[in-house]
Amino acid sequence: MLSAPAVYVCGVLPAPVVKHGLEWRPAVILGAVNCADEFNEKVCRDFRITGYPTLKFFEAFSRSPEDGKRISHVDSSLQALRQGIITHLEKYQDVYPPLEPGSTEEVHGFFQKNKVAYLSLIFEKNDSFVGREVTLDMQQYMNIAVRRVLSNEEELVKEYNVTTFPSAYLLVSNGSFSRISVQEEARSSYTSFLRGLSGINDKTLILKAQNVTTPPPSRVPDAEHPTETTHWNYADSSKLYMADLESALHHSLRVETAKFSILEGEQLEALKRYVAVLTKYFPGRPFVKNFLHSLDNWLEEVKEPNISHRALEKALKNKKDPPNPAVLTNSVTWVGCQGSEPRYRGYSCSIWTLFHLLTVQASLYSARNAGPLEVLGAMRGYVRYFFGCETCSEHFEQMAAESMDQVKSLDEAILWLWSRHNRVNARLAGDLTEDPKFPKMQWPPPDMCPSCHKEINGQHAWDEAAVLHFLKGHYSPVNIYFAYTKPEKFLLARDSRDAEETTGVKGKGNGIAGMEDKGRREEEEGGEQRRTEQVDPVVGRKMVAQKWQALKAAALAAKKKQHLSKRDTTPLLMTDDNSRRAVDYAAAQEHLRRRGLKSKEIIGVLEEEGDDGVRKSRWFHVLGLGYSHLDISLYFLSSMCLLGMYTFYIRLGSSKGRPRFPMA
Q1: The domain that contains 161 carries what CATH number?
Q2: String of b and e for 519-551 (b: at least 16 CB within 10 Å)?
Q3: Chain centroid, CA 331 distance in Å
Q4: Residue 35 lies in a domain
Q5: Sign of dihedral through CA atoms 277, 424, 420, 383?
Q6: Which of 155, 351, 374, 406 is the most buried (most CB within 10 A)?
Q7: Does the N-terminal peptide bond of residue 26 adopt cis geometry, omega within 30 degrees of 0?
Q8: What range does the domain containing 161 cover?
Q9: Where are the beta strands (DSSP E) in 304-389?
């Protein structure tokens, strides 16, 4: 329960706003909840926050989330946030200090009724917020009061000879007054001047000096959990990282959709289209693709007009049933999209990367009957109905409404998204949301694609043919790197550990397959032995024999681990819609990783083409083993020579016959 009026802003608040929120207590309590953070998912859903920034006003002694009244939509500027708070605060009758305009009668008798040394009058027009902001700025200071006076209060305006609005005057209890001289007639200048007056003391500092503590107000939702020190992940800007892409999938499917208790109508259809496009084109690892296929099938089978959050949450859980586990990371790891601080880049960067990749994938798989608006339409629906930043969503919808329907080919779809992304970068350059260490720029820069840039009549221009070629290479699956991704076994083990924590059953190890501690292994082995001893002796012998056979099979598999044959590469090939054999890059990396090869040893893909440009074949080369084409040729010739020599001597020995011994 709140002891004072409160305004909670759902979104990431800049530091100056938080600072003003502290200064305006106890007139109003200002707090912030980052609904883009998965940690606050339940709080934001309980308070029915579906986008940010969202401002909700709670009167004093509010008890439940339903008591919050949403303040009409404001933009994300600091000034708009402050003004929105003040406008709603004025509707609350018992607010102190008073924000209504002062009258001539009140000013003339002020020092007789109030024991303060100073009274500051802020003369302004009716639509100005300067006087109200200064009033709130100074309400924690003793021995001074602030009142706003409107320009239509003619008697006071004439008495103090006021000619400009806004302007500020300082009245002293001894009867003297003077105009406050500042470089700029603005709120910050007036506040700074008044706080520097002699005899003006901060109430909070006095209470601290007297060892008097004021009880903190009750909290509505918890603020964002403490930020931990972020480990910096090295990234190459010329590469894509699967960790970013999988994190984007997790956040978009599990966090952004979790804000809604019910999905129905166009919103539900937008989710279905988004998942269908991901299932069709996302070049993920096998278990991630299984996850998307499973979710897509579930959504297609939904016949009801709506689905609940609980049902969707269940469908989005990882399924570890062999032989085809469906698993997606349950956390985010930013690599190429990591910002200098947690509030920068991250998800917004990764969702752009994801859709650029999908437009290129649709172009590469044109035989799958992809329409030019298939990926763009899915992106438009997702951003419109699910993307948390409401301002971003509105701007993207405006761009889509302007020209998206003019896209007539898959290549045009790639270029449309690229050009709109650059337009967004231009709009946000210098914005509060911009990461100072990663400034917004027109992309790709000249150092990444020199041929993309040209000059026409002294003006910069894009060579769109070169840009298209660059985009198809940059957003190709072969340019995706798997550094910092979690292995399948790790994800499955963590799921098991999370399930144990949820049900209250705690394991004794760290929960990660292949990394269990010695105590857990000994406990499992001891438990197996005890179970064997408790069963029938015949059954027990069979169990021991089965275990021995399993150990032999495991040893044999380990012995053959480093040998790679043509049979091993067969599952890594897939047939595209033109009946050609193509490489499933993600499956290849996962399959070979299971064989024990490191990422640097894994894959080189050679595509041989005839003069007519038709693909002939694709082969895998295990580059890490250190063999080149020349090495293989020499080894082959040496083997043939040795085989020939061996055959020659065998036949020579046969022709001479066996030695005979004399008979007795």
Answers
A1: 3.40.30.10
A2: eeeeeeeeeeeeeeeeeeeeeeeeeeeeeeeee
A3: 10
A4: yes
A5: positive
A6: 351
A7: yes
A8: 104-209
A9: 306-308
